[in-house]
Amino acid sequence: MDHSPDNPRTRIPSVLEEPSAQSIARVYADAFLDAAAAQGVEGALEEFGSFVEEVLAAHPDFADILTSGVVGRDQKVALIDRVVAPFGSELFTNFLRVLARHDRLELLPTILREGRIRHELRSGRRRVQVVTAAAVSDATRNRIRDLLAQSLPFEPVIEARTDAGLLGGMIIRVGDTVFDSSLRTRLHELRTRLHQRTLHEIQSGRDRFSHPAGD
C-alpha cells in the first residue's frame, strides 16, 4: 500500500470511485480492532466515531487538508502530531499516522463503518435493515429487535430507515435475504396476478374461437 515516487499512484478523488475501497477499509478496520483489543474496543471505536462524526464534521477545512492530494504525507503526519496527538489516545493517533503515510485518510468514514460492523460480528451481532413507510418509535424498534432475536441465530442490530413509497408494512433485510411485507409489494403482486389472470382468460377465449364446438 506504500506508493513511493518510483511507483506513483494516480490519486482517486473520491472513495466511491475506487472499487476496492471497502475491501481496503475492512483490512484497516480489522487491524484497528486487533490493536484496540488490549485497551478496550468500545472506547476505541467511540474515540474514532467522535473524531470522524464530530471533529471532522465541525471542521471541514481540517478534513479537506487531511484528504487533500496536494498536501504531502509528511505534512499530514505533522498536522496530526500537532492537532490530534495532544488530545487523542496513542492508539488512535498512531492509526491516523499510518493512514496518512499510506495516503488512506480519505477512507476514515468507511473504515469507521466497517470497524463497527466487524466489531458487531465478532461480538455475535449483525446489522438488520428495517425499512418502514414512516419513522418508528424507540419502543417499536425495540419490539422489532426482540421479535427478530427470537428467530435469528444472532443478536440483531437494527438499522431503521423510512420509505414513504411503501405505504405500509415493512421490509427487513438480513444480509442477502429480504423479507418484504410492504403494502407496495402486495399491491404489485396483486396487479401481477390480475394481469396473469386476464392474459389467461384472453388466451382461453382465443382457444375457444379457434376450435369451435363440433369442429
Work out the helix count.
8
Share of helical residues? 55-70%
Overall pLDDT: 82
Strand order of the largest sheet: 2-1-3-4
Offer a few descriptive terms.
alpha+beta; 215 residues; 4-stranded mixed beta sheet; elongated; 12% strand
How is this fold's topology laid out?
Blueprint: H1 21-36, H2 41-58, H3 60-67, H4 73-83, H5 90-101, H6 108-122, E1 125-132, H7 138-151, E2 155-162, E3 170-174, E4 177-180, H8 183-210
Parallel strand pairs: 1-2
Antiparallel strand pairs: 1-3, 3-4
Describe the structure.
Helices cover 57% and strands 12% of the residues. Strands 2-1-3-4 form a four-stranded mixed beta sheet, sandwiched between helices. Helix 1 (21-36) packs across helix 6 (108-122) and helix 4 runs antiparallel to helix 5. Strand 1, helix 7 and strand 2 form a beta-alpha-beta unit. It starts with 20 loop residues before the first helix and ends in a 5-residue tail after the last helix. With 215 residues, the protein is an alpha+beta fold.
Question: In a few lines, what is going on in this structure?
Answer:
This protein is of the alpha+beta class. The protein is built from eight helices and four strands.
